[in-house]
């Protein structure tokens, strides 16, 4: 038996996989003061369902896989360790300057952001390495010991070190590490070259700073988690989801907690990739996860999950860039709780303000007084007021009607239903634009993808989004409401090893590159032998980070041969680069050579022999044919069939207008669209075209 | 579901969102594929859509000085010079006498035609080039007597693609004249790529919803934007205000520099703002003259920086804004062969700063202080021969300038770069510069006690010290603000002025001019200090805790906290509340004595 738990902002999701591959899904409220309590609660819920006790249930588990927002929450709420920053002499302000750049050039209401670590806790280390790795100024150890004395005085809890060019010559950083260990025992530190060996000092410094600041907290969390699971009877392996869509052992992740920044959302595309393949044999997908306040978009491109090093905590340029590789997830403020409002010029907006879970939409009757997307869906008859979350919470239609009339219909001179439909249309377009942005950056044409709708509210406008983007199908997985937890269940042990080494296709450094690739290979093999012990299958892939001469940004290109022996090997790398450049940006420069800056080896070890699994069907008594009035744009209210998700037979088609609902989700099938139940349990919807 | 709602307010939201998506897509493509540092690092580029009637419809978030006006003028000149333009054409434009900002801003214009061959839109992608074939290796030639000495090849909307194919004659001219031609070629490809993406997406949109529907929408969108602008103008006090901002003396300018006088009239009743730039000197025999595009844009920028930032910037809101220019004026409409080499920065900044400072006189909820002037040596164009490869190089570096002004509602954005840039510029990574060029960056950072103090504070100055590595290196820069520091408004103080010197091989400081081309020998270093930015409101009213924080972070000294802000600190760096109150009372009395 395996457990996968994803702790999100509102809910903690659990998926249990039984030994025959059957899945069960459970949810409990997240408990921000002690997130492990919420996690244990879902397990208790599961034990209750299985009619056993927690110890008994856990004792059957071999794997416990966990995704958590604990690290990112700690940063957002300022609960990280008191951390010092050691930089090269003369370069004190790396974290203050950042990389420049700004959004909204006419907006002068937002002040410049504070540095991730205070300037008052920044210390300059004398000593300088140059771009070629040579030492210009030796390290001044006496001065470092003085700095360490100051750190003691300040009672810092962690230290981040980023020295210029440590990526080509790490001697100085390593020596600073030794001195810290000796003179400041027990205080954790992060060396930038060891954590994130990439060019550009701000990004490396930022990674190191974030990592160091999380160390005390996250090692405590990991100890606590493992301990409480053991105490409750779990004897298997505890794995943690990383930002790179892989998993690592809990004790390893405590040593480099920056891996946790996107733990959770990074798993949505793992799920998405599986369902795109198994349901429609597609290898590219747009994966969406609709929550109450945010809409996360990630991608699958030709079977791979694109990643980025430009992950921001907070808004771009106003937050902090992690500089650390992560699955690319674009997040916008759009969801069921997004508030609809009309500006003084008469234009309708939806979000980015959100009523959140508390007070929530007006129909929750918890004090929400603003018109939200959920209120609009209720007015349109898309959501059943007595079957929301399986009937756990009754919604108040009158409240929704009242706020939409006041906030939207009256100011715009629209009828109530028209106003509600307009709210959904604008929310849909906001989501579409988020998808367009991320697909442009990754060179993906949405028309060559399927849309995966995760999160309980995904089905409300999945057909509309798929139509607008021209996606082949919209797929609502049965486990869609816990897409990340399902992804965690399918994930692999994964790690990336990276080196910086500059060379060009014209003057290729065979010896240097081959030596480096051999080192990378050794690191991967060591990973496979230790961490990956007992895995069913292991895989190592190599990549070069390359660019055209004078280009500033690199792109990642797969390397087919991991030894460079002749011009042919280089030509194939160069050709691969031209091809990738064209895929991403629609242009290339076939006459030009390339420059290679960085080298990566990515190792993956598969732990399960099957990938997916379907939910255990819970028998519902509720299989009587029902019908209700649902509103569709330009067509008004139409009598629409209402079906239970769980009771649909495999292969059964549902033709719109129809509503398909379960305790976890509601799916709107517009007129012209057609939904099919798949073997995996998913609902696959042919969006069709709308009737004019 | 989305494209069938027929109500104006909904359609506005949907279609404006889509058009903004298109220019964003163009812009992302250009950013990611550009070759030169000035494009990729300084983000000195822009993408926009103009209607067939030459009205700016939408611009991607980009340098403000690039797009408010200019695209309209260039579109007009394309139509005038090529009355038979057709699908598949592309035009290269950099003529400041035909609507471009300045010659360094190569712009690609692509007309978009519907299925029946009617002109519907013109998309434009513009990117500042690292080199344009000037007589010296810089694209900012401050002391160029005229366009001949400047030496730029001027392309007044010259056809560069026919039926989607390059016209190789033009490409060859560029490749033989422009230094490091592969870099220009890379940027050219990137600009063409972005414009063609814009063409493809807009055509798709027009065909999907119908070209005429799109026209209706555009008309609604302009009306909506005009209404928002009118409301924004009505919400601020009406009145007349003037401001003079002086550009430092450079070669070719009068010895007292160039005083730029701006007059602003806000008329709430009529919902209009007028900016008058006519009372200013004639064009000068140097590269600092503004093009028509930059004269207009800099004035408009000062206005938009001062009012509700959510007002859309397009031809609709521009109806409420009138900029008065005259011919042959340094901030007006120049004629050939006047040089406009530096039109996007130095004097243009004096205009924008003048407008926003004038607006600040109207109310403490409006306007901004002056941003710092540029470009200090930290933003030089560097060139030479790289001993590691034997190849020549030329590029602009961005090693550190701050220059942000305080606004009526917040402290400065530190890295604003200059008012016309709006902070969009990235800063170079030291490692990336040292890898790309034979350069050594000794140090860089903020300078203590240099912010324009105020209720809201302007930027602190930045310094950078760098030099060539195992070779010599030419650097070209035009550092305004050595004499005329960025002024504060409404009692805010000025930010620090700029300054530069050289450190020779013996470690001795040697003075260097504020503008020009100098050679650094191996072992020499240039020391660059940027301006700070002006403060907004009185510093003795500033939140004392913010002052204490700046002291603990090492940005200001205890002495400055006391003398300028009237804040006294206790032994652990906290605010001494009672003492501070007393001190501020006496400081206020002193201030009122002088008023």
What features would you describe in this structure?
The complex is a heterodimer of chains A (692) and B (595). The radius of gyration of chain A is 26 Å and the shape is globular. Among the domains of chain A are: 493-606, Dna Ligase, domain 1; 633-686, no CATH class. In chain A, α11 (373-379) crosses α12 (397-412). Chain A is an alpha+beta fold and 692 residues long. In chain A, 31% of the residues lie in helices and 25% in strands. In chain A, the strands form nine sheets. Chain A has an eight-stranded mixed beta sheet with strand order 19-14-13-22-23-34-33-30, with helices on both faces. In chain A, strands 3-2-1-4-11-12 form a six-stranded mixed beta sheet. Chain A is built from 17 helices and 34 strands. Chain B is α+β, with helices and mostly antiparallel strands. Chain B folds into three domains: 8-225, Beta-Lactamase, CATH 3.30.450; 368-537, no CATH class; 540-593, no CATH class. Chain B is built from 15 helices and 20 strands. In chain B, the strands form four sheets. In chain B, strands 2-1-5-4-3-6-7 form a seven-stranded antiparallel beta sheet, sandwiched between helices. In chain B, a hairpin with a 4-residue loop joins β12 (381-386) and β13 (391-396). Chain B is globular, with a radius of gyration of 24 Å. Classes of the chains: A alpha+beta (692), B alpha+beta (595). Chains A and B meet through α13, α14 and α17 of A and α1, α7, α8, α12 and β14 of B.
């Amino acid at each position: 038996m395996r457990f996968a738990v994803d702790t999100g902002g509102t809910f903690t999701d659990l998926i249990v996989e039984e030994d025959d591959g059957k899945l069960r899904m459970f949810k409990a409220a997240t408990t921000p003061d002690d997130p492990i309590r919420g996690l244990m609660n879902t397990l208790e819920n599961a034990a209750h369902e299985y009619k056993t006790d927690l110890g008994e249930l856990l004792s059957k588990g071999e794997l416990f896989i966990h995704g958590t927002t604990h690290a990112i929450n700690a940063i957002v709420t300022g609960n990280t360790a008191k951390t010092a920053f050691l930089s090269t002499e003369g370069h004190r302000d790396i974290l203050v300057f950042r990389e420049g750049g700004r959004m909204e050039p006419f907006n002068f209401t937002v002040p410049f952001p504070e540095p991730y670590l205070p300037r008052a806790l920044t210390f300059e280390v004398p000593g300088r390495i140059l771009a070629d790795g040579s030492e210009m100024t030796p390290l001044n150890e006496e001065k470092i010991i003085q700095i360490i004395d100051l750190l003691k005085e300040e009672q810092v809890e962690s230290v981040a070190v980023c020295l210029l060019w440590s990526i080509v010559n790490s001697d100085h950083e390593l020596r600073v590490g030794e001195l810290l260990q000796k003179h400041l025992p027990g205080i954790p530190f992060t060396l930038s070259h060891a954590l994130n060996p990439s060019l550009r000092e701000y990004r490396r410094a930022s990674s190191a700073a974030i990592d160091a600041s999380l160390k005390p907290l996250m090692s405590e969390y990991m100890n606590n988690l493992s301990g409480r699971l053991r105490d409750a009877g779990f004897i298997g392996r505890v794995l943690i989801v990383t930002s790179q869509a892989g998993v690592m052992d809990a004790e390893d992740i405590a040593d480099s907690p920056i891996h946790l920044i996107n733990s959770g959302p990074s798993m949505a595309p793992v799920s998405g990739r599986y369902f795109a393949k198994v349901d429609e044999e597609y290898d590219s997908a747009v994966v969406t996860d609709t929550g109450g306040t945010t809409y996360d978009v990630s991608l699958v491109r030709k079977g791979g999950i694109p990643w980025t090093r430009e992950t921001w905590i907070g808004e771009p340029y106003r937050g902090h860039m992690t500089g650390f590789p992560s699955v690319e997830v674009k997040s916008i403020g759009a969801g069921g709780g997004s508030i609809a409002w009309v500006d003084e010029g008469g234009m309708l907006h939806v979000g980015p303000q959100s009523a959140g879970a508390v007070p929530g939409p007006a129909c929750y009757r918890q004090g929400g007084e603003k018109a939200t997307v959920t209120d609009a869906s209720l007015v349109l008859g898309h959501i059943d007021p007595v079957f929301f979350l399986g009937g756990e919470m009754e919604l108040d239609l009158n409240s929704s009607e009242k706020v939409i009339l006041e906030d939207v219909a009256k100011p715009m001179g629209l009828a109530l239903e028209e106003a509600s439909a307009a709210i959904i249309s604008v929310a849909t377009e906001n989501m579409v634009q988020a998808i367009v942005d991320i697909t442009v950056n990754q060179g993906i044409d949405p028309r060559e993808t399927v849309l995966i709708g995760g999160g309980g509210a995904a089905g409300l406008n999945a057909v509309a989004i798929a139509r607008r983007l021209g996606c082949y199908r919209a797929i609502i997985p049965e486990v869609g409401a816990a897409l990340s937890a399902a992804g965690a269940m399918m994930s692999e042990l994964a790690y990336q090893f990276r080196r910086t080494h500059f060379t060009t296709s014209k003057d290729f450094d065979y010896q240097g590159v081959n030596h480096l690739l051999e080192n990378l290979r050794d690191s991967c093999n060591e990973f496979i032998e230790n961490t990956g012990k007992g895995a069913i299958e292991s895989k190592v892939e190599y990549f070069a980070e390359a660019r055209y001469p004078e280009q500033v940004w690199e792109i990642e290109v797969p390397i087919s041969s991991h030894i460079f022996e002749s011009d042919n090997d280089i030509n194939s790398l160069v050709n691969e680069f031209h091809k990738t450049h064209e895929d991403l940006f629609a242009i290339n420069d076939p006459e030009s050579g390339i420059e290679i800056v960085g080298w990566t080896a990515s190792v993956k070890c598969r732990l399960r022999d099957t990938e997916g699994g379907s939910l255990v069907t819970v028998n519902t008594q509720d299989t009587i044919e029902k019908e209700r009035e649902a509103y569709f744009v330009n067509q008004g209210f139409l009598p629409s069939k209402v079906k239970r998700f769980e009771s649909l037979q495999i292969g059964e088609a549902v033709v719109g207008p129809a509503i398909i609902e379960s305790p976890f989700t509601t799916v709107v099938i517009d007129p012209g669209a057609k939904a099919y139940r798949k073997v995996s349990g998913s609902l696959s919807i042919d969006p069709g075209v709308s009737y004019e | 579901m989305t494209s069938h709602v027929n109500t104006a307010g909904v359609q506005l939201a949907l279609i404006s969102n889509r058009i903004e998506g298109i220019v964003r897509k163009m812009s992302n493509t250009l950013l990611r594929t550009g070759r030169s540092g000035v494009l990729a690092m300084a983000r000195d580029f822009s993408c926009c859509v103009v209607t067939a009637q030459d009205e700016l419809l939408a611009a991607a978030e980009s340098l403000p000085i690039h797009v408010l006006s200019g695209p309209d003028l260039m579109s007009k000149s394309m139509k005038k010079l090529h009355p038979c333009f057709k699908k598949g054409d592309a035009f290269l434009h950099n003529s400041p006498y035909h609507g471009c900002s300045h010659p360094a801003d190569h712009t690609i214009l692509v007309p978009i035609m519907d299925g029946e061959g009617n002109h519907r839109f013109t998309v434009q992608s513009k990117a500042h080039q690292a080199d344009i074939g000037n007589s010296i290796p810089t694209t900012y030639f401050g002391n160029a007597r005229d366009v001949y000495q400047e030496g730029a090849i001027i392309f007044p909307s010259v056809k560069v693609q026919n039926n989607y194919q390059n016209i190789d004659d033009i490409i060859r001219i560029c490749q033989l004249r422009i230094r490091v031609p592969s870099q220009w070629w890379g940027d050219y490809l990137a600009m063409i790529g972005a414009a063609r993406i814009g063409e493809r997406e807009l055509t798709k949109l027009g065909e999907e919803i119908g070209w005429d529907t799109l026209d209706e929408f555009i008309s609604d969108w302009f009306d909506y934007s005009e209404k928002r602008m009118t409301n924004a103008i009505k919400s601020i006090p009406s009145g007349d205000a003037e401001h003079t901002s002086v550009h430092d003396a450079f070669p070719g300018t009068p010895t007292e520099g160039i005083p730029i006088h701006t007059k602003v009239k806000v008329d709430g009743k009529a919902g209009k703002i007028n900016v008058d730039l006519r009372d200013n000197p004639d064009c000068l025999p140097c590269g600092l003259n503004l093009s028509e595009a930059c004269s207009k844009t800099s004035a408009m920028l000062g206005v938009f920086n001062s009012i509700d930032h959510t007002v859309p910037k397009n031809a609709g809101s521009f109806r409420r804004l009138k900029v008065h220019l005259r011919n042959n004026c340094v901030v007006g409409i120049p004629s050939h062969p006047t040089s406009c080499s530096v039109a996007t920065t130095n004097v243009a900044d004096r205009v924008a700063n003048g407008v926003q400072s004038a607006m600040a006189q109207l109310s403490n909820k409006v306007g901004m202080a002056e941003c710092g002037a540029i470009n200090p040596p930290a933003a030089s164009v560097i060139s030479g021969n790289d001993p590691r490869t034997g190849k020549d190089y030329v590029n602009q570096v961005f090693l550190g300038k701050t220059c942000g002004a305080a606004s009526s509602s917040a402290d400065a954005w530190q890295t604003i770069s200059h008012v016309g840039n709006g902070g969009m510029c990235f800063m170079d990574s030291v490692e990336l510069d040292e890898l790309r060029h034979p350069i050594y960056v000794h140090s860089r950072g903020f300078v203590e006690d240099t912010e324009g103090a105020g209720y809201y504070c302007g930027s602190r100055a930045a310094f950078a010290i760098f030099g060539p590595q195992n070779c010599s290196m030419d650097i070209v820069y035009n550092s305004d603000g050595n004499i005329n520091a960025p002024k504060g408004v409404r009692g805010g103080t000025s930010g620090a002025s700029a300054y530069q010197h050289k450190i020779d091989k013996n470690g001795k400081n040697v003075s260097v001019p504020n503008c020009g081309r100098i050679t650094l020998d191996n072992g020499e270093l240039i020391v660059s200090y940027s301006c700070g930015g002006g403060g907004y409101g009185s510093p003795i009213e500033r939140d004392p805790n913010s002052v204490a924080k700046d002291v603990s972070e090492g940005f200001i000294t205890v002495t400055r906290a006391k003398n300028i802000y009237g804040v006294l600190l206790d032994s652990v760096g906290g605010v001494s509340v009672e003492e501070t109150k007393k001190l501020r009372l006496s400081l206020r009395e002193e201030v009122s004595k002088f008023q």
